[in-house]
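cron nightly-structures :: item 1 of 1
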Amino acid sequence: MASPIDALRRLSAASVNLLLSRAEFASVELAQARAQLMHWLLLALGVLLLALLGLLAATALFVALLWPVLGWVSLLLPAIAYLLGAVLVFQRLQREIEGAPPLLSDTLQELAKDRDAFRGQVAGATAQHSDQQARESP
């Protein structure tokens, strides 16, 4: 028959092993998030550069064509359009950041499940141990 100390030792070893595996999963999740973020940043940088070059060329064409008719107003119109676009994109970015799940949310959920499972096992083991002691001591 296993003693309570052996059961506690096995439970603590299982807990440590489980925490180590969860830490490993968290490390893998962080590495994947970092790689994905770098990929997105590089793509965004490429898109931004190409869009900026296209916008610069289109603005120069717009101003050159409308300068004889509108003068300095031909520079003001694209400036207002760019500022409006920047404000809209910034607002969208804020909404997406606020709606994004927290980092390591899956790992934290799994740790909470493990904690609840261990609490159930410890409570069950304690109740079982007290039942055995009650049966053994007449």
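cron nightly-structures :: done
Residues 4-70 form the longest helix (67 residues).
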